[in-house]
Amino acid sequence: MKTGMTAHRDARIDMVRALALLTIFINHVPGNILERFTYKNFGFSDATEIFMLVSGISVALAYGARFVSGQRATLTLRMWRRAGVLYVSHIVVTMAGIALFCLGAVYAKRPELLSQINIGPVMERTPEAMIGIITLGHQIGYNNILPVYALLLLAAPLMIHGALRWPGTTLGACGVLWLAAGLWQIAPRNYPEAGQWFLNPLSWQFLFAIGIIGAIHVRRAGAFPVSRWGVALAGAYVIAALAWVHSPLWGQVTWFGLSPVLGGFDKTYLSLARLLHILAATYLVLALCSAVPVRFRADNPLAVLGRRSLAVFIAGTVLALAAQMLRMVHAGGVGYDLCLLVLGIAAQFGLAYYLDWVDRVKAAARSDTPVRHRAPALNAGRVLAGHGA
User: Fold this and answer.
1) Where are the transmembrane segments (predicted)?
2) Residue 364 CA: distances (Å) to CA of 2, 60, 131, 360
3) pLDDT tens-digit profile of 16-43?
4) Which of 86, 181, 195 is nearest to 132 (CA)?
5) What is the Cα–Cα distance from 234 to 388, expressed in whole angstroms?
6) H-helix or E-strand containing 306?
7) What is the pLDDT of residue 216?
């Protein structure tokens, strides 16, 4: 039995999101053998760019068509409530990550674990670090995506409104903000430690906005615009990026004396090279999907995983941190790494299928309940209308 949500979702979006989530999980266990084969090894961007772009597209598909007069306030509150859920989720994952490394430090007698993944300030300056955690000024390692996503969801209603009314102006304004943040290094500050957020929301909002505006434009046009020149240019850029990251040039920080956002590969400020790479790769994928319109079943494993993105992301982050801690306590080699990764991936699929099953049970219960009560109500209506029972 398919729920209404499952029946109307595009499984391809869920599958891409699932691949991004699995890639993030693998990359968040640094040094494992599978990390060599993930998306980040084939160009300038990585799974974080995929996640943010797909998130923008998903927000547009979920809310864009319904963001009209009379529903804007309700939909805005829903997006803000989702942002609140993301904030709480981030705090929970942060505390779970700290607890995992404390567990290793205590029971494996490895106190050096308390200085890993930016946990040191929590141990050394606990009151200040706790304030930093709840205000998002202190983020432990490998747990930087949810704060940015939560802030972008707060801004999403304004982006959707702009995309519907003034798409060009909205895109231009987001682009100017991205450029200004990168040129002058404007970003939220860390606390209590010095520095700035690892992922700057003022920069990453541009990619999120491109996803929203692009999805709304394609929906209005009815088809994704594909041109031979576009495919050729995107393909050339992707191939050049692949060659670049496997050459000595990849070690260079900036080029041509430009700011890192324009002439480098900086991730914090989403450098131009990274931005163009994810857009070029996305264009090629969408062009291929337009040329070969393959539809996937909504119950295929990747689609199921992608539908449960928040729960899977939370579980994947905690499992990745647990795997990191276990590898630091006991370096078991390739077989040990593969075992940790396989168990972690299996646990994420298991969680997604469990949540899907729970939803099916609830949907079945809801569909059965009206059937038992609908007949008397309809009969009463007919009596009142003079038609009899």
Assistant:
1) 47-65, 85-108, 171-187, 202-218, 230-249, 269-289, 310-329, 335-355
2) 10, 29, 45, 6
3) 999 999 999 999 999 999 999 999 999 9
4) 195
5) 68
6) helix 301-307
7) 96
Which residues partner with 254 through β-bridges? 264
The length of the chain, given as a count of residues: 389
Please state, in angstroms and rounded to a whole number, the distance separating the CA atoms of residues 73 and 101: 42
| CB-based contact 141:197 (threshold 8 Å) | no
Does the pLDDT of residue 1 top 50, yes or no?
Answer: no
What local confidence, expressed as pLDDT, does residue 298 receive? 84
pLDDT at 64: 93
Q: Tell me if 340 sits within 8 A of 358, measured CB to CB.
A: no
Query: Which amino acid, residue 225?
Result: P
SS3 category, 26:
helix
Task: Give 66's contacts (C-beta < 8 A, 6+ positions apart).
Answer: 75
Minimal CA–CA distance to 209: which of 143, 156, 288? 156
* DSSP count for the chain of H helices, then E strands: 15, 0
Q: For the packed helices 47-59 and 201-221, what is the interaxial angle rounded to 10 degrees?
A: 50
* Whether residue 257 has pLDDT greater than 90: no
Asked whether the beta carbons of 28 and 324 are under 8 A apart, the reply is: yes
The pLDDT value given to residue 70: 85
Please name the residue that has the structure tokens 């007949």.
375
**Mean of the pLDDT values across residues 194-217?**
97
List residues bridging with 314 in a β-sheet. none
CA 310 to chain centre: 8
Which tokens hold the place of 141?
């390692």
Q: CA–CA separation, 341 vs 39, rounded Å?
A: 17
Quickly count: other Cβ atoms within 10 Å of residue 147's Cβ: 22
- Placement of tokens 């779970």 in the chain: 96
Mean of per-residue pLDDT scores for the chain: 90
Residue partners of 108: CB distance under 8 A and separation at least 6: 329
Residue 161 has pLDDT above 80, yes or no: yes
Cβ count near 27 (within 10 Å): 20
Three-state secondary structure of 5-54: HHHHCCHHHHHHHHHHHHHHHHHCCCCCHHHHHCHHHHCCCCHHHHHHHH
Using pLDDT thresholds of 50, 70 and 90, give the confidence band for residue 4: very low
Phi, psi of 196 (to 5 degrees): -125, 170
pLDDT at 132: 98
CA 373 to chain centroid, in Å, comes to 42
